[in-house]
Amino acid sequence: MANPQTEHGHTRIANEILERCMKLSLNGTQFRLIMLIWRYTYGFRRKEHEFSINFMAEHIEGARKQVDRELQILIEQNIIKFNGYGKRGARILAFNKNYDEWGKEQTAPSAPPPKTEGKPKSNKKPKYSDDNMYYKMAVHFHKLVSQVAKEVNLEHLIRKANLQSWADDFRKLWEVDKVRDKKQILALMKWVTSHDFWRKNVLSAKKFRQKYLELAIAMQSEQSKTPKQSPRQQATTNKEIEFQKYVAAGGDPDEFDWGE
Predict the structure, then answer these.
(1) What CA–CA distance (Å, rounded) separates 134 from 166?
(2) What SS3 class is residue 93?
(3) Cα separation of 153 and 141, whole Å?
(4) By three-state DSSP, how is residue 254 classified?
């Protein structure tokens, strides 16, 4: 059985305020919001308090949108005063006991102003000139990829490629990922765009950067499986090529000099 007592806590409200509130044409949600504000201002012997919409909705058991809408009406009618925003970003509210001002509109923003602490961070990417190393990498790789895309009918995927964005990906590869072997990067570009599988799956600088380690390992593994020719074998091969060119030019095969 409930048995509330004033000695357990009470809120002091002037009778004149109660009598004036009785005459207000307010809906149930609006009356409950006024009572909530009384409870957490006058009930704690203070004139104002910071109220979030979640807090108010929870304590009157109402929907957030409904609470926000009805509170805004009370503020606009000057029954509830809006006194700025608190440390938590919620509105500081107070009951306006000057009932002569009720019904006279006051304007209050519905959302806190943006924070201005420190300099705002910029997400704008740096601009790369035509002679910038990263931009040159982007142009070179774009040419290789464009040829692949044309061969496999995927030109639409790179038709609108942003070379500034590609250059930024190569900058990140160099500066962030610490891949600073230009010869290896260029070699990998050529290998990727000639590989049967990867040439169709790496069609942007972003993907190239993301897959760089995996691609580098795959290239190294493939190259290690290719047997290297000895200097003598290489020399023989070169002579055979020279012989073929000699014969194609009309030379007598029997007169070809096979000496080193």
Answers:
(1) 8
(2) strand
(3) 18
(4) helix
Between the CA of residue 16 and those of 10, 23, 158, 178, what are the distances in Å? Answer: 18, 11, 75, 75
185-223 pLDDT per residue, tens: 999 999 999 998 898 888 899 999 999 999 999 998 888
pLDDT at residue 231 in the model: 64
Q: What is the pLDDT of residues 3-33, one digit of tens each?
A: 888 888 889 999 999 999 999 989 999 999 9
Report the alpha-carbon distance of residue 45 to residue 136 in Å, rounded: 70
Sheet holding 80-85, edge to edge: 49-51, 91-95, 80-85
Q: Using 50, 70 and 90 to split pLDDT, how confident is the model at 2? A: confident
| Closest alpha carbon to 47 in 18, 83, 75, 21 | 83
Instruction: Give, in degrees to the nearest 5, the angle at Cα 184 between 194 and 226.
Output: 55
Query: What pairs with residue 80 in β-bridges?
Result: 95
Residue 107 tokens read as 């304007």
